[in-house]
Design goal:
Mean pLDDT: 77
Low-confidence stretches: none
Number of strands: 0
Distance between the termini: 57 Å
């Protein structure tokens, strides 16, 4: 019985991960979908674990964005022209 419980929780984690991966790039809340799934499937973990899990599962998407746009945002890239570096540095110093 314990093995079935463990398998079921791992299956829920995989489903939540798939929901996060699919809905992250859509113009809707991926966190909201994960919370809705938790309401229906009830992950049997502490609230602290759920909070950390919801943050950690989104790190993949955050890292993908950083990796994709790093060359555009990095003002210290040695392959950029000086005018582009100055423009980036000016944008960092802007107050909105």
């Amino acid at each position: 019985m314990l093995e079935l419980w463990i398998f079921w929780n791992y299956l829920k984690i995989v489903i939540v991960s798939i929901i996060e991966g699919v809905t992250e790039w859509l113009p809707i809340s991926s966190t909201g979908h994960m919370l809705l799934f938790d309401e229906f499937a009830k992950l049997n973990f502490s609230s602290e674990f759920k909070s950390v899990f919801m943050v950690v599962i989104q790190l993949g998407a955050i890292m993908a964005v950083i990796f994709t746009y790093w060359s555009k945002l990095n003002p210290f890239d040695k392959h950029k022209k000086i005018i582009v570096k100055k423009r980036i540095q000016l944008n960092y110093g802007k107050k909105y």
